[in-house]
Design brief:
By secondary structure, the protein is mainly alpha-helical. 47% of the residues lie in helices and 4% in strands. It is built from five helices and two strands; from the N terminus they run H-E-H-H-E-H-H. It has a two-stranded parallel ribbon with strand order 1-2. The protein is globular. It starts with a helix and ends in a 6-residue tail after the last helix.
């Protein structure tokens, strides 16, 4: 049985606009579990392909890509840059500029 949290998280992730990012924690909060950021990571890992999720638009609370170099970092960075998201020398994006808040 699929939980309502899972369904809401999927719906939110699918709505992230091009050129915007949102954190794992924000998605968890909007989906109804403010402490569920690890669950969001699991949903992205297990369901991105199945539900065609915009996984690359999800970053950590510091506005950084969570993947390590050689393990998905370059792909996510490239996808975001192709949408106009710019990263600084510390590999952080301007979270204020690129952040998306679906319900605020």
């Amino acid at each position: 049985m699929v939980s309502s949290f899972y369904i809401r998280a999927i719906e939110i992730i699918k709505k992230i606009p091009e050129g915007k990012v949102v954190t794992y924690g924000q998605i968890a909060k909007y989906a109804g579990n403010p402490r569920g950021s690890r669950q969001i990571a699991r949903i992205l890992h297990s369901s991105s392909e199945k539900h065609e999720l915009l996984w690359h638009r999800v970053v950590n609370s510091k506005g950084k890509i969570s993947f390590k170099p050689g393990c998905g970092f370059e792909l996510q960075k490239s996808l975001l840059e192709s949408e106009g998201v710019i990263f600084d020398k510390d590999k952080k994006n301007n979270f204020v500029k690129y952040s998306w808040k679906p319900f605020d």
